[in-house]
Amino acid sequence: MAKLTKKAIDALPIPPKGQTFHWDTETRGFGIRVGASGAKTFVIQYRNVDERSRRVKLGRYGIFTVEQARDLAKIKLGEVAAGGDPAEAVVQARKDVTVAELCDWYLEEARAGRILGRRNRPIKASTLNMDESRIKSHIKPLIGQRKARHLTVADVEAMQADVVNGKTAKPRTGGRGGVSTGGAGVAPRVVSTLQSVLGHAKHKGLLKEHPTKGARKLATNKKKRRLSVTEIEDLGAAMMVAERHGENPVGIAIIKLLLLTGFRRQEGQAMRRDWLNAGGGYVAFPDTKGDAQLRAIGAPAISLILEQPTVASNPYVFPSAGTDGPITTARDCLGRLCAIAKIANATPHTLRHTFGSVAGDLGFSELTIAAMLGHAAQTVTQGYIHVDEALRLAVARTSEEIAAILNRGAMRLK
């Protein structure tokens, strides 16, 4: 090709696929790349002191004029003549990404499925949503502008202390009420998210080393709150009172199901009707915190599910009244029921822990209870479905016991 000019570049053909290069006859090593999308980008190509062929982008045609790009090319090629390597400078600049930039990269790559998590599978959307929340609420405000490769263990532990002390506390946005306070429960999770971002960046070659490997996370106390037998009775009575005063019966049904099964909140709320095998006594979850699982379920819970009214074109056991998805207000409903029953400090996880605790009261072993709760659950493998009979009986016995206690509370009002 002759000398690159605006007229010549405008007339360049667009390749049907891939890219083509056109080189300037005036400045050796200066050219333009044309992609199948129509994008035209100025480049230089040269050999460095190690005789390796290198290519560097200068800028997009339209943003740069031909004259501006040629002048920049002469500067860069002059650096090469002096023994420099502009391509290596670009690589080093990329390595100096900030923590905020690295977090943005992680979220984009993970949501596209290009970063793998547990069991070498794409990271779940729910996990990424929590990661994004921690990044926006805590990591970016505290250390977002720091250069990632210059972080130290002390920096991470200082960030953790700031989260514990409420330095990032602020009102929530996006329709959620209250204040994002941080605290001792959130702080170690923030550290876990940051360490995950840095670890994946090292694995993908964006960082030469994991700069904060070995940072210590604050120890947290596991939630041990359970409802006593009296509180379960009180909750049964509160369900009757709430329904009489207009509480959404679907919300009440979800709370009852969580207590009768030990399911996680989202597992109960988002359960689909076709996951239930009433005859087999199990629910086949296609995806849970522990991947696909079969979870045994007792007769009281099965009856509760089958009693729920169906909504056309909505596959969920507990359908939303306003959308084609499931209801999402279990936490709020539980709060109102607990206010009626005068039960303090109870969350949906408290119901799960109560189910396990009642199973323990009935004499079942820790290993059995772990399987009942899905920690060591039956799995779906190659289409073969099996739920251990002993596990089924343990779940049935526990579910029936809880149903009986709830009923005792409800009978007070009759």
TrEMBL record:
Keywords: DNA integration, DNA recombination, DNA-binding. This is Integrase arm-type DNA-binding domain-containing protein. Belongs to the 'phage' integrase family. InterPro entries: DNA_brk_join_enz, Integrase-like_cat_sf, Integrase_catalytic, Integrase_DNA-bd_sf, Integrase_DNA_bind_dom, Integrase_recombinase_N, Phage_Integrase. Residues 222-397 form the Tyr recombinase domain. The keyword 4Fe-4S does not apply. SUPFAM superfamilies: DNA breaking-rejoining enzymes (SSF56349). One of its GO terms (molecular function) is DNA binding. It comes from Novosphingobium bradum.
